[in-house]
Specification:
single chain, 849 residues, alpha/beta, five-stranded mixed β-sheet, 27 helices
Length: 849
């Protein structure tokens, strides 16, 4: 006997003890696929024959089975299951997870079971138990299908059990091996001429007489249902679609209108409303055989399809993640009708639940069903019903290009019950029906793993997520603007040269060891890291960032807070940036209408004024006063001939160090009263419409940004840079001399980066940048006296491994966020990466590094 088992199903073995269930399961299924009641008894009671723990064992069995089914794993339950009460929770489990329950019944002779149990010393129950189980099994044979088992296979002899072959049957919804490209078409509703025009727009060759179509580029059409009703030529649409499907040019899922038409064609009692009457009248004019073909075609349509290795799901009314690729009445109902709240609106129509606003699945879901004037991406879902039959448009989505193609309706063929406005200002959906892309706290809570293209899976510990949530929820800007947070940066390995802690040579040596020969050394401005996003128009901002139609940009800190909180100063700043981008011609040269920049905003005090006043200035004032008083006292003692010369010299050295500390932070602070007091130093273009620039060479970045800085040299401060060949000693020496000049004249130092920007080194992603800070700047970080020999030697033993790991992980997350945003992925998908960067910042890493 050949038993066909759906590839995702719950297989329940039914038979008396000794009927061969366990041997059968071991022969035909994987070890991890089989859940045995005996094994679960052993798990909880240390003895698989301990009947006193049966209830607890089945709790464990049901829990594991539920988990496997949730993960999409075929599961086999090996227990006697001869009583309806024992099978009932298993059938419910299958329903809850939208999989088919399959019963395999072992109706072998009673004597076989008794003899087998006698030969097993671990089975100490009598033959009466077997007889009772066998009797219960016989009574069960009549009720298995009524209980809900979709497939029942009865094996009536030992020979039949031995001869069984198991065939795993792919789900009807599983078209994962079909990769497209696809042209997915929304609700047609009998608009044949518009369908022909739309196919033509997408390059299809349509023969309107033969009702056939083909594409020279081997594309396949996908029809989302509701082919019929309300429009002028439902038979024409049906002929074309049926021919395309039969020839392999298309696939089709059913809509609720097809479901109703099938019942009418089968002679069922249905209400002839919502355009069904028009379709039936049109079919009367066709040969009777055509209606039979239509009935058979529509009756055989599958609820939904999972395509392209699970990356794409198509269904008429949408599909929740937990239902994708599953089979149940609930799945088909959702595919046809969606989900309603149980209420009706003022027009007497059901209010639909906005499932898309809560969708978090990995697959793109493309659907129709509910007319909307304009297509809109909501959490990786899109509705293509743009109300052609109501005078709107017929719309398709080109996949994987994500390009929307539409043609206008040639007439208003049907007046909707609810007003429909193709211009987008209508009331075709109630507020509760209209999905909105948003965030949910569950998106970021708890321990999470985030997949990144550059660095694989990055784990966010639960404690870190909680810390980031506090910042994000209380202080961060509107998350729709928050498309990137910059990573931390690791310093160069410690040098032993003189009284320096960091030196460029260590950075050059590290990149050389990674196989990177060309690096770019960029001047490190002592300001505050700023991400600046500007849009060419408020309309672009509203379309791409969900703005209110007034804002056209945003500047935020590396913790996601708004940078310039004074509205007038902020607006003037963004207007100047926008004007410079326009003047530099970046819109045209980069082919975008918005841009994001990674910058340093000066002065440091513009953001860190409170930090300067309470931490650095306080230390400077106290140190200056204290050391000055000590020097004066010791000088007086020295003039009186006391032996304090050594301690006086040390105090004078300390006074010089404190003065250097005050001078160091003072260089980076000045009052900000107007736009004239702000300087912006951009060093990387991050992204624009449909693309990222983070993989562009840093020399390209510097040259491109040089033009931007020239467009407004009052606001912008160019970033000095040097290109270094780390295999060439003179090239390295020249850059060291430049670094020395920078740091001796008050500069913070420089950042050494691979010119190729993103490079895989010997053991994974190479450091995206290594900072090399000067001696006097580090006096701010480590304190006035850090260069004193005992302090410097202690600092030279600092550990950098954790900081380096953090820098790579945060960089990978940042790039992943930009790439997801550029691909128009859902907000929550972008935000989880941005949130991850902020969460990692709470790791216990020395903040001075």
């Amino acid at each position: 006997m050949n038993i066909k088992v759906p590839e995702l199903s719950l297989v329940v073995l039914v038979g008396a003890s000794g009927s061969g269930k366990s041997t059968f399961a071991a022969r035909h299924f994987g070890k991890t696929e089989v859940l045995s009641s005996d094994f679960c008894r052993a798990l909880v009671g240390d003895d698989e024959n301990d009947q006193s723990v049966t209830a607890e064992a089945f709790k464990v069995l049901n829990f594991i089975a539920a988990t496997r089914l949730e993960l999409g794993k075929l599961t086999v339950v090996d227990a006697t299951n001869v009583q309806q009460d024992s099978r009932k929770p298993l059938v419910q489990l299958a329903r809850d997870h939208h999989v088919l329950p399959v019963a395999v019944v072992f109706d072998v002779p009673e004597k076989v079971c008794i003899d087998r149990n006698v030969s097993r010393p671990d089975r100490n129950f009598g033959s009466q138990v077997i007889r009772r189980q066998h009797s219960q099994l016989r009574r069960s044979l009549r009720s298995l299908e009524r209980e809900g088992f979709r497939r029942v296979f009865v094996l009536r002899s030992v020979e039949e059990v031995e001869a069984v072959e198991i065939e795993r049957e792919p789900s009807w919804t599983n078209r994962a091996a079909e990769h497209g490209p696809f042209d997915i078409i929304g609700d047609v509703h009998g608009c044949f001429e518009e369908l022909v025009e739309l196919l033509g727009e997408m390059g299809w060759e349509v023969d309107t007489l033969a009702h056939t179509a083909s594409h020279p580029g081997s594309r396949k059409a996908v029809f989302l249902g509701d082919l019929v009703d309300r429009g002028p030529d439902s038979p024409g649409v049906l002929r074309l679609v049926m021919n395309m499907v039969s020839s392999g040019q298309a696939v089709c899922v059913p809509g609720n209108h097809e479901n109703k038409l099938v019942r009418a064609l089968k002679g069922r009692d249905v209400q002839v409303t919502h355009g069904l009457g028009e379709t039936l009248e049109q079919l009367k004019a066709e040969p009777p055989a055509f209606s039979e073909e239509v009935r058979d075609f529509l009756d055989g349509l599958i609820s939904h399809f999972v395509l392209d290795d699970g990356h794409l799901v198509v269904a008429h009314a949408g599909m929740r993640e937990e239902m994708q690729g599953r089979a149940s009445g609930a799945v088909r109902s959702f595919a046809l009708y969606g989900e309603t709240t149980g209420e009706t609106d003022e027009f007497g129509l059901p209010v639909r639940f906005p499932w898309a606003s809560e969708y978090r699945g990995k697959a793109m879901v493309v659907y129709g069903h509910t007319p909307t004037p304009d297509t809109e991406w909501i959490n990786n879902t899109i509705c293509l019903d743009t109300g052609c039959v109501f005078g709107g448009r017929l719309t398709a989505l080109r996949y994987p290009e994500r390009e929307v193609v539409s043609v206008p309706a040639r007439a208003t063929y049907y007046e909707p019950v609810k007003p429909f406005h193709a211009e987008g200002d209508g009331a075709e959906r109630t507020e509760s029906e209209r999905p909105r892309e948003g965030l949910d706290i569950e998106d970021v809570l708890g321990r999470r793993g985030i997949e990144t293209r550059l660095n694989g899976r990055t784990t966010i510990p639960e404690a870190n997520a909680s810390a980031a949530l506090e910042v994000m929820s209380r202080f961060a800007i509107d998350p729709r603007w928050l498309i990137y947070l910059p990573p931390t940066m690791a310093p160069a390995a410690t040098t032993d040269e003189g009284d320096l802690l960091e030196h460029p040579q260590q950075a050059f040596d590290e990149f050389r060891r990674e196989g990177i020969t060309n690096v770019v050394c960029e001047e490190k401005h002592m300001g505050s890291r700023a991400i600046v996003v500007v849009c060419r128009s408020p309309e672009t901002a509203e379309r791409r960032f969900g703005g209110d139609g007034q804002n056209f940009g945003m500047a935020f800190t590396r913790t996601g807070r708004e940078f310039l909180t004074d509205p007038e100063l902020r607006d003037e700043f963004l207007e100047r940036v926008l004007a410079a981008v326009d003047s530099a011609g970046l819109w045209e040269s980069l082919d975008t209408d918005w841009l994001a920049f990674d910058c340093e905003l000066l002065p440091w005090s513009a953001k860190a004024e409170e930090l300067l006043r309470t931490q650095y200035a306080a230390v400077g004032a106290a140190g200056t006063a204290g050391v000055k008083a000590a020097v004066e006292m010791l000088e007086g003692a020295a003039t009186r001939g006391m032996g304090v010369r050594a301690i006086l010299d040390r105090s004078r050295d300390r006074a010089e160090m404190v003065a250097g500390f005050v001078e160091a932070y003072g260089r980076y602070a000045w009052p900000v009263a107007s736009i004239r007091d702000i300087k912006l130093a951009p060093f990387q273009i991050l992204a624009g419409e449909g693309k990222t620039f983070v993989e562009r060479e840093h020399t390209w970045q510097m040259e491109t940004l040089g033009g931007l800085c020239s467009a407004d040299d009052e606001l912008f401060r160019p970033t000095g840079y040097r290109v270094v060949d780390v295999m060439d000693q003179e090239s390295q020496a020249d850059s060291v001399r430049w670094w020395t000049e920078l740091t001796n004249t008050g500069g913070e130092g420089m950042v050494v980066k691979p010119n190729e920007a993103i490079v895989q080194g010997r053991k994974g992603l190479a450091q995206p940048g290594i900072k090399v800070r000067g001696r006097e700047y580090l006096r701010i970080i480590y304190g006035p006296e850090y260069t004193a020999p005992p302090n410097l030697e202690r600092l030279r033993s600092r550990g950098l491994a954790r900081k380096r790991s953090l820098a790579v992980r945060e960089f990978a997350l940042g790039v992943e966020a930009l790439e997801r945003f550029a691909r128009n992925e859902p907000l929550y998908r972008v935000h989880e990466c941005v949130f991850g960067v902020l969460a990692l910042e709470s790791e216990p890493v020395d903040p001075r590094l």
